[in-house]
Amino acid sequence: MTASDSYDPPPATGDGSTAMGDGSPAAGAVVERLAATVERLRRQIQQAQASADGRALIELAKGVLVERLRCGPAQAARQLDLLAARAGVSPVELAADLVNQTARDQVSVVVEEFLLRTAAPGDSSAAVRLRTAESGLLAAGDTHRVAQSVLEHALAPLGATAVAIWSASADASLSLLGYAGISPQEAERWHYVPPGVATPARRALVERDAIWIEDSSVSSLPSVGDSMGARAAIPAGTGGRLLGVLEVCWPRPLEPQPPRITRQLEALAELCAHALESDLATARGSRGAEPADLVRLADSLFDPALVLVPHFDAAGTLADFRIHHVNTCFIDLAGRPRSLVDGALLLEAYPMAAGEGKVFERIEHVFATGETYRTYNTSLTELVDEVPLTVSAALSISCHGDAVLMVWRLEDETMRLAELLQHAQRLGRVGGFEEKTDTGEITWSRQLFDLYGLSPAADPIPLGQLLDHVHDDDVEAVRPFLLTLLQYRTSASTTFRLVRPDGVTRHIRVIAEPVLDPAGNIRAIRGAYQDISSQHWTEVALSATRDRLEHTELHAAEQSRLARQLQQAIMPAAPPSIDAFGLRIAVRYRPTEQDHLVGGDWYDAMVLPSKQILVSVGDIAGHGITAATGMVVLRNALRGLAATGAGPGQLLEWLNLVAHHLTEDTYATAVCGLYDPQTRVLRWARAGHPAPVLVRAGQATLLPMLDGILLGAVSETTYEEGELQLETDDTLVLYTDGLIERRDRNLDECVDRLLAVSARFTGSLDDRLDNLLDHSDANTDDDTCVVGIQVGAGPATPSSR
Questions:
Q1: Where exactly are the transmembrane stretches of this chain (predicted)?
Q2: pLDDT digits (tens, 9 = 90+) for 728-777
Q3: Each residue of 373-394: pLDDT tens digit?
Q4: Does 597 or 492 have the greater pLDDT score?
C-alpha cells in the first residue's frame, strides 16, 4: 500500500509535536503498520475459510459416528479426536477417511472414483483436498464457490491458474455461473454467450467430448480469460444430460496430457455438474414444475406431441425416456389408443425409433445438450402387425428442463400438392386468377403480382381494364380474346405485350375460361397468365440463328461445288495410261463421296524436254476450296520447275518456297521422282509423304524413308535424294494416305497390309491398281490417289501423251 498524493496529515498532538508529517519517518511507520494489519487480516480470513472447510469435514465425520455409535455430538467429537490420536493422523484426515468409507451420495461416489483413479497410494493429502472441495460444494450451494474450491484444492496442483464453469441453457446459450483466477471485469464481458458463437465450451457441448487446446495463441476459438497457454473444456453432465462445461486454463502451452490427468478433469467436471444441477433445481422450484407447464403447452398444439421424461437404470445411467403425456391431437401410427401409449417407455412403445431414422439418438442429443432439433422431411417407421409402416413427417424435438417435447406433422397429400403447384407456378412464371362477376371480388396468386410489377398489397386489375395495360400494337389482338370470353362465354387465349408501371414490357400468354351457373350466366372467370418473354426472345434468337445457318450452309455447299468442279477439271478419276520409253504409267483417283470433305490430293506424270519422266504425288492438308486451289498452285508450280532440269530434291526445295511464301497457310506432303529411261534409274525425294512401294519378283518392299519435312512448314530446308535401279517387270506404287489409313489402326499396320496386298499383284498394271482400290479398307473419308509405274523390256520410241 502506498500513500496518495492527496493524503491529509493528522493534526498536531497536545504537546506540540506532530504524529505524522509529510516525508517524516513517522509517516512511513504508520503505512507499514497499516499494511501489516491488512496482511494479518487476510491470513486470518484464509485460515478461517480453511478452518470452515475442515470443520465441515469434521462435522460430517461426527455425524457418521453419531449414527454408528448411537451417541451424542460431544461424545462423537471426543471419539474422533481419540481415533485420530491413535492412528497418528490429524482429525481432518481421519474425517476424510470416514466420509470416504461411509458416504454413498452421488457426489461422494464421484470423489471416491476420482481418488481411486488419480491419487497415488497413501496420498492422504489428496483425499483431504478432494473431500475439502466436496464439502465446499455441499455446504456452499454456490457454483462460484465451487469453482474457487475446485481450483484451489484440485487444479492448482496440476498447474492450472483459472477455472470457468459454464451453464448450458435450453436455447443453446452459455452462462458463466462460476469462475476462479479470472478478473471480475473479464467475467462480466463473458457472463453470457449467445447460441451459435463458436467457443471451446460450445464445441465441447456440441461434440459431447473433452476439447484440449495445447496452445491458445494458435487457436481461432475465443474464450474467457487472458491466458495464452493451454486450455481444456470438459462437458459436465449427470444422468445422461449435459448441464454445462468445465473450462480449465494454464498459463503456458502444454504437451498432450496423460490419461490420468484427463480422467481427473472428467471426474471434476462431473463434480461441478452436481453444483449446476442444484442451481437448476433451485431455479425450477422458483417457477413451478416444468412438466406440468410442458403438458399444457403440448395440449395447446394442433399437431401430435409427446412429453418425454428421462428414465434411468439402477446404475443411474440414462436408458430410455418415459412417455409422460400424449396430447389431445395424438394419433398413433399403429392405431393404438392413447391409454396404451401414455406412461410407457419410448423404446417399448416405438421400438423402431432406435432404428434407421435414429429418432431416439436425436432425443438423447437434445436432452444432453439442450439444442433444439428440427427437420422438415424425415421418415417415421412403426410396426403394424409386424409389417413396417413408414411415413414422411416434419419433426421438432426440444428440451424443457428435465423433459423433452417431441412434435411431428405428417406430410399431407393436399398440402404437398399445393406446394408442388406453387413451385410449378414459380418455375413456369405462371400466375392464376379468379374474378367473380356478381361481387367483383378478384383473387390473384402471388406470382401474378410479380408478373404485373405490383406489390402484394396492391389491388388486382380486373379483365375489364386489361386493355389499359396492353401495348398499343397488341390491342387489336386482345379485343377478340375478351369478346370470346365475356360475350360468347367460351374459353379463349391470346398473347400480347404487357406494359408494367415501371415501364418494363413483358411478353404474356393468357388463357381463361368462364364458370357458368345452371342458367348459363357467367358466375366467375378463372384463368392464368404466363410470362413467355424468355421463350419469345429465344425464338427470335433461334430464327436469326437459323437464317445465319441456312446462309452458311448455302455458302458451304457452293464452296464444295466449286472445289469439286475444280478438282474434276484438273484431276480426272481415270486418265489414260502413259507409255514412254518402255515405261508404263497408270493412275487411279477416287475422290471422297462427301462434298464438304473435298481434299487436295494430286498426281502428275509427264515427259520433260530432257526426255526424263516426271512422276509426282501430293496431298494438301485440309478440305474444301482452299485445299483444291492449293493443289492447283503446287501441281502447276512443280510442272514449271521441273522444266529447269533440276533434281527431285531441288524441285521440292523450290516447291517448299512456293508453299511457304506464295500461298496462304498451305501445307502439303509430296513425293517427286525423275526416271531416266536410258539407265532405268529413278531419282526421288519425299516431303513428309509415305514412301513408295516396290514390287519385284513377287515381293513387296517399302523404299527408304528419306529425310524431308512437309512443304510450307519452314521457309528454308533441304530434302534428301535417293536412287533406285529398276529392273524389267518392276512395279513402283506411289499413293496418298487415303488408300491405307484407318481410325482403329496405327500407320505401321496399315502399311503392312498394303505390302501384303501388293505382293499378290497379277494381271496388267491397270488391273493391279483397280485391285488395290477394291481391297482398300481405309475409313477416313479422304481422297485416294494411286500412281503405278511398270518397267518394260527396254526403251521404246515415246508415244504421244
A1: none
A2: 999 999 999 888 888 888 888 999 999 998 988 888 898 888 888 888 88
A3: 888 878 777 766 666 777 778 8
A4: 492
Is the residue at 600 inside a domain?
yes
Order of strands across the sheet with 668-676? Answer: 600-607, 613-620, 668-676, 681-687, 721-725
Residue 202 maps to a domain: yes
> Which grid coordinates are listed for 450?
410479380
Same domain, 134 and 195: no
Residues 114 and 166 both lie in one domain: no
> Do 459 and 375 have their domain in common?
no
Q: Residue 579 corresponds to which amino acid?
A: D
Q: What angle do CA 110, 114, 120 make, to 5 degrees?
A: 155
Q: CB neighbours (10 Å) of residue 391?
A: 13
Cα distance between the two ends of the chain: 130
Give the pLDDT confidence score for residue 709 in this predicted structure. 94
Burial 200-234 (b: 16+ CB within 10 A, else e): bbbebbbeeebbbbbebeeeebebbbebebbbbbb
Q: What is 292-347 written as a DSSP string?
A: HHHHHHHHT-SS-EEEEEEEE-TTS-EEEEEEEEE-TT---TT---HHHHTTSBHH
For residue 384, what is the domain's CATH number? Answer: 3.30.450.20
Residue 585, SS3 per DSSP: strand
Does residue 133 fall inside a structural domain?
Answer: yes
Nearest-angstrom CA–CA distance, 128 and 96:
6
Q: Are 780 and 672 found together in one domain?
A: yes
pLDDT reported for residue 18: 40
Which of 224, 253, 287 is the C-terminal boundary of a domain? 287
Encoded amino acid at 57, one letter: L
Could you please report the per-residue DSSP string of 363-416? HHHHHHH---EEEEEEEEEEEETTEEEEEEEEEEEEEETTEEEEEEEEPPHHHH
pLDDT at residue 49, rounded to an integer = 59
Q: What are phi and psi of 355, to 5 degrees?
A: -90, -135
CA atoms within 13 A on the CB side of 729: 8
Type of residue at 8: D
Residue of 641, 788, 764 lying closest to 700 (CA atoms)? 788
- What is the C-alpha separation between 98 and 101, in angstroms, rounded? 5
Cell of 648: 527431285
Q: How many other CB atoms sit within 10 Å of the CB of residue 502?
A: 7
Q: What is the mean pLDDT of residues 687-711?
A: 94
CB-based burial label for 717 (10 Å; 0-12, 13-18, 19+): middle
Q: What is the number of structural domains in the chain? A: 5
Strands 731-735 and 784-791: antiparallel
Is residue 762 located within the same domain as residue 633?
Answer: yes
Over 488-514, what HEC string results?
A: CCCCEEEEEEEECCCCCEEEEEEEEEE
Residues 187 and 316 in one domain: no
Which structural domain range is residue 377 located in? Answer: 290-411
> What CA–CA distance (Å, rounded) separates 428 from 448?
12
Is 441 found in the same domain as 395? Answer: no
Residues 78 and 136 reside in one and the same domain:
yes
C-alpha cell of residue 321:
425416456
This prediction has a pTM of 0.38
Q: What are phi and psi of 729, to 5 degrees?
A: 70, 5
Give the pLDDT confidence of 396-423 residue by residue, as tens digits: 999 887 889 999 887 765 555 555 566 6
User: Please, are residues 653 and 659 in contact by the beta-carbon 8 Å criterion?
Assistant: no
- Per the DSSP assignment, residues forming a β-bridge with 379 are 392
